[in-house]
Design a protein that fits this description.
By secondary structure, the protein is an alpha+beta fold. It contains 5 helices and 5 strands, in the order ααβαβαβββα. Bound molecules: heme C.
Length: 203
């Protein structure tokens, strides 16, 4: 079980041994590509849509101060993976206090927020790969009434430096569909790497 977790793909990481099974990985990658395709189509001039077309309520607020929350894990998606154009680079996952309750109990209470903080990488060419500029943050907010249609989670994405969710409905549905493959884990993929190290303080 432990090994499975370690090798699990993330936002479509390398296919070594995806704990959810190869079929799910293939489906997940297909989804990621589909979501990317939808984004491109929406951006094409031929679509003749305003920037806000396809957006739906309710809006999700920018999770101010998230970098002070608990670090859940980090991961790297390289250009070798199909999800790279959209999710590639170095990411750090953060959770607020309610999200930590979810990791402990398996039940994410309303108010839980998770952030996938994505950065470009900088290869110095001497064996050191560094964190580059931020690309965007992906956010999941638990509110079982507002987001009842997607297992209680609302999905949002904020471009670096932006405070407004840029997702369109189809993209949001893509987020939810892939995360739904983790239904037994409350639709959350990440495992809390340092959970054992929090035992001493009980925090
Ligand atoms: C193809 C599947 C897939 C799609 C589509 C997808 N995700 Fe994820 N997401 C993942 C995986 C896998 C991880 C785990 C990353 C890790 O383990 O480092 C993840 C992690 C996250 C996390 C951190 C919490 C968690 O579940 O681990 C957030 C927040 C998140 N995604 C938001 C989004 C948003 C917003 C979208 C839509 C723009 C989205 N995701 C689309 C697969 C997906």
């Amino acid at each position: 079980m432990r090994a499975d977790r370690r090798d699990r793909a993330s936002h479509g990481q390398a296919a070594r041994s995806f704990g959810l099974g190869d079929a799910v990985l293939v489906a997940a990658v297909a989804l990621a590509v589909a979501v990317g395709g939808i984004a491109q189509a929406a951006a094409a001039p031929a679509a003749a849509q305003s920037a806000d077309a396809g957006k739906d309520a309710p809006a999700i607020a920018y999770p101010a101060g998230y970098a002070l929350w608990t670090h859940i894990k980090s991961g790297l998606i390289t250009s070798a993976h199909a999800a790279y154009p959209r999710f590639g680079g170095l990411h750090h996952v953060y959770g607020n206090a309610a999200a930590l309750q979810g990791f402990r109990s398996g039940n994410y209470p309303d108010g839980a927020v998770l952030v996938y903080d994505l950065f470009e990488t900088r290869d110095h060419g001497d064996g050191i790969i560094d964190q580059g500029p931020r690309r965007h943050i992906d956010v999941m907010v638990k509110d079982s009434r507002r987001f009842a249609a997607t297992a209680g989670w609302g999905y949002a994405e904020f471009a670096a430096g932006q405070r407004n969710d840029r997702l369109k409905t189809a993209e949001r549905d893509g987020c939810a569909a892939c995360h739904a493959t983790r239904r037994q884990h409350g639709d959350v993929f990440s495992e809390w790497a340092n959970q054992a190290e929090t035992a001493a303080t009980g925090s």
